[in-house]
Amino acid sequence: MPGRVKKRSPLKAPDRPFIALGLEGSANKIGAGIIKHDPDGSTHVLSNVRHTYITPPGEGFQPRHTALHHREWALTVINDALKKAAVSMHHIDCICFTKGPGMGAPLVSVALVARTLSLLYDKPLVGVNHCVGHIEMGRQVTGAHNPVVLYVSGGNTQVIAYSQQCYRIFGETLDIAVGNCLDRFARVINLSNDPSPGYNIEQEAKKGKRLLPLPYATKGMDISLSGILTSIEAYTTDKRFRPNGPTAEDGDDVITPQDLCFSLQETVFAMLVEITERAMAHIGSKEVLVVGGVGCNERLQEMMGVMASERGGHVFAMDERFCIDNGIMIAQAGLLSFRMGFETPLAKSTCTQRFRTDQVHVTWRA
Amino acid sequence: MHTFHYPHLPTELSTVHVALFNNVTNSSEIRSRIVRASQLHGPDGEAEREAVNFAFIDARLICSVLHLQTAVYQAILAQAQDSLRTKTVHSEILWALNPTNNISEAIRRYGVADSTTSLIVVRISSPHLSNVQELMSRVVTGTLSPLEDLSNITDWTTVKKYHKLNTEPALKAVAKDSAQEHIVVNEIVTSTVATKSVSA
Amino acid sequence: MATQDVSPTLKLLEKSEKISQGAEAKIYRAQLHPTPFTSESNSDGENVLLKYRFHKQYRHPTLDASLTKSRVAGEARAIIKCLRSGVNVPGIRMVDAAEGVLGIEWIEGKSVRFLLGGGAEDEGDIVEDADAAKDEDEVTEVKEEDLLKEYGVSADVVMEMIGTELAKMHQADIVHGDLTTSNMMLRHPASPKGLQLVLIDFGLAYISTLIEDKAVDIYVLERAFSSTHPASEGLFAGVLKAYEKKMGKDWAAILRRLEDVRLRGRKRSMVG
């Protein structure tokens, strides 16, 4: 890129080690993570513990029950994290928690724990944007420099690029998130939610052969997924649909759940790759970082990789430890902002279901 | 007669011969020959079909050489990709020229009629076909004229009618300036011909 | 029929001059029809612009083929609708939907982006587009006034022309979807169609009657203006003024929605 001057990062190396506890619970996972920033500039994951609220097949998770799950598991997860990190609460410099976005009751149930710990141990609170958490952890784990970020999860679908202390949203879903689309379809065909519906769709898709026509809806940098969900659901009432696979009498013209999973993935992922590519072309970037639960999907990673290499670029992806919602990413993003002097006073430690990625002032980057 | 060569097109379709005939006196004869040629069997039939193996186009409906070339090119593409909608690449030109999908209407509107007086004759072939002008003249009785004469022949009223342009804002904007109007019409018509393969 | 190894359109691309490559397509300059003779005024000479939506390896081939075909078709149809509605757009010269190639009238002229002076190219605006080669002569230090002087218009007049074309387009219920100063060209006054402001690149265009879509269309241009030509921000008011004049009574509703869109920045609030 022409005229790119190496800007000095406003974040100075710390004079002593900093340790942060991060708590995450915006959806059906409750996570606690402990991260350490050393004076030599290095970052260490001391522990990353998580528990997932898994519902029976065909059911989604409701806010109330999810909040109850988080309440039930919070202390266990936190204690486990402390033990694995071999630190005590007294070593922690700050308690980071997800301020938003996410589901109301679950968010609050975790924030409550954060506030209580903050009062008990007299530690500052740091409210963190969930999406920024994903981005910062992604950058840290993969070492990606200045990538276009595709953030895809059950609750979010955005294409993001950093510019002047802001994570600008270049493109996003106009209706539902891609994870949500996949999860809902998994329910329609009664797939298990263990370990996650998305994972099971991915496995079923590998056995699919037929690409069924589905509406392809990209609108410039944005995508729309509700139409595709309606269409894929409609196929399950098609005469040719065989929920248990083809019978002996069936010819070639059958539709199996595997075919539907395959078709859904191929179409939806192509849309995601397309808007990511558009952003890359617009900015002139050669790096892609995929974050969020759907980022675990290997087919998505594969497709993104093909696109990136065609452009002479590179994809950065992570495994499920960091892709799926976790506490460590909250700790990471929180500690970065804490070191720049950011703190959330108790009175302001509320949660918000709507908290856009571009509302965060990214003080720790140039 | 003019000959255009397209090196990137398949050899047997790469050469386009175009001639404009004015004062045509045997249009009915040409038309009946075409009809008869399609009905005859055996070697006589083949010979007759070869004799009239051209596209005969009513010159009044052609706005410009570009217009014609666009239709010819799209017809050749269809032949090369095995996606002809009509029987031959020559009849495909007539189909391409017509705004609707009705093949008989295309032939009726753009092909040779008993009353046709100015004909554009097109032959698509390999570069090896020689004496094309002579082959054309055996079929058409008329005056071979330079293609530039086309600008005097175009029947803009009918062109506008067939393409349903009279109510379009583009034409209302230039209604007072006929030179401008012709430019606009030529553009719409040429673009429409090019887009025919994908128009709903 | 004899079969060829390489399709004719791809063969044509092979011997054409590649100008640029975007996310979706490669752009070439080509000679489609051989010159017939010197006196005929084919309004644009023999040059055409070929837009090649190349095969995307990451997509399933069936999906890729149908998508490419429908995009070529969509762009072509949007252009035809513009032509019929009197919007200044390039004409179409050739369509090969199976190969993903659209042949478009070659426009002799320069992009508005170039003529207004590129201005600050901030991080977000390095766009690889056809401009790079449309300015065949590498003009390095030419001032804005000199560039426009050759065209015989002032920047203000260019803004008026833009506003007018946009209004015509929206009146025909066509939304461009990607309005930037790179997607607008000034046809050189010496060309057969004369000086014109031409809208190009309808790859993202669609039909819509919604005021929201039209307001967003304008907003995208407004943002593109301020980020690419920050010194010329005052000029954009000229675009809106001419748009208002041409739009007439429909302007009020669009303006209201545009103000709305500005406030929310075309973004919606997120849910979890």
From TrEMBL, chain A:
Cofactor(s) the record lists = a divalent metal cation
What is the UniProt remark on how the cofactor binds and its stoichiometry? Binds 1 divalent metal cation per subunit.
One Pfam family assigned to this protein is TsaD
Database matches in PROSITE patterns: GLYCOPROTEASE
Q: Where does substrate bind?
A: Y151, V152, S153, G154, G155, D183, G198, E202, N297
Q: Where is the Gcp-like domain?
A: 45-331
One GO cellular component term noted in the UniProt record for this chain:
cytoplasm
The answer to whether keyword Acyltransferase applies is: yes
Which transformation does this protein catalyse, written as a reaction?
L-threonylcarbamoyladenylate + adenosine(37) in tRNA = N(6)-L-threonylcarbamoyladenosine(37) in tRNA + AMP + H(+)
Write down the superkingdom of origin. Eukaryota
Q: Which GO terms describe its molecular function?
A: metal ion binding; tRNA N(6)-L-threonylcarbamoyladenine synthase activity
Identify the stretch annotated as signal peptide in this record: none
Name the protein family. Belongs to the KAE1 / TsaD family.
Q: What is this protein called?
A: N(6)-L-threonylcarbamoyladenine synthase
What organism does the UniProt record list as the source? Dichomitus squalens
Automatic annotation (TrEMBL), chain B:
- Transmembrane segments in this chain: where? none
Please provide one cellular component term from the Gene Ontology annotations of this protein: EKC/KEOPS complex
Where in the cell does this protein reside?
Answer: Nucleus
Swiss-Prot/TrEMBL keywords: Nucleus, tRNA processing
Q: Which SUPFAM superfamilies match?
A: PF0523-like
Domain of life, per UniProt, equals Eukaryota
State what this protein does.
Answer: Component of the EKC/KEOPS complex that is required for the formation of a threonylcarbamoyl group on adenosine at position 37 (t(6)A37) in tRNAs that read codons beginning with adenine. The complex is probably involved in the transfer of the threonylcarbamoyl moiety of threonylcarbamoyl-AMP (TC-AMP) to the N6 group of A37. CGI121 acts as an allosteric effector that regulates the t(6)A activity of the complex. The EKC/KEOPS complex also promotes both telomere uncapping and telomere elongation. The complex is required for efficient recruitment of transcriptional coactivators.
- UniProt record similarity statement: Belongs to the CGI121/TPRKB family.
Q: What is this protein called?
A: EKC/KEOPS complex subunit CGI121
Identify the species of origin: Dichomitus squalens
From TrEMBL, chain C:
State any GO CC term: EKC/KEOPS complex
Tagged with keyword Aminoacyl-tRNA synthetase:
no
What catalytic activity is recorded? L-seryl-[protein] + ATP = O-phospho-L-seryl-[protein] + ADP + H(+); L-threonyl-[protein] + ATP = O-phospho-L-threonyl-[protein] + ADP + H(+)
**Which EC class does it fall in?**
transferase
Chief location of this protein? Answer: nucleus
Give the UniProt subcellular location, in the record's own words: Chromosome, Telomere; Nucleus
| EC number(s) on file | 2.7.11.1
Give UniProt keywords alphabetically: Activator, ATP-binding, Chromosome, Hydrolase, Kinase, Nucleotide-binding, Nucleus, Phosphoprotein, Serine/threonine-protein kinase, Telomere, Transferase, tRNA processing
| GO terms, biological process | tRNA processing; tRNA threonylcarbamoyladenosine metabolic process
Looking up Gene3D superfamilies in the UniProt record yields:
Phosphorylase Kinase, domain 1, Transferase(Phosphotransferase) domain 1
GO molecular function, a single term: ATP binding
Q: Give the matching InterPro entries.
A: Kinase-like_dom_sf, Prot_kinase_dom, Tyr_kinase_AS
UniProt keyword Hydrolase present: yes
Q: How does it assemble?
A: Component of the EKC/KEOPS complex composed of at least BUD32, CGI121, GON7, KAE1 and PCC1; the whole complex dimerizes.
Q: What does this protein do?
A: Component of the EKC/KEOPS complex that is required for the formation of a threonylcarbamoyl group on adenosine at position 37 (t(6)A37) in tRNAs that read codons beginning with adenine. The complex is probably involved in the transfer of the threonylcarbamoyl moiety of threonylcarbamoyl-AMP (TC-AMP) to the N6 group of A37. BUD32 has ATPase activity in the context of the EKC/KEOPS complex and likely plays a supporting role to the catalytic subunit KAE1. The EKC/KEOPS complex also promotes both telomere uncapping and telomere elongation.
Member of which family? Belongs to the protein kinase superfamily. BUD32 family.
Which PANTHER family does the entry link to?
A: EKC_KEOPS COMPLEX SUBUNIT TP53RK, NON-SPECIFIC SERINE/THREONINE PROTEIN KINASE
Name of the protein this chain belongs to: EKC/KEOPS complex subunit BUD32
Q: Give the organism the record lists.
A: Dichomitus squalens
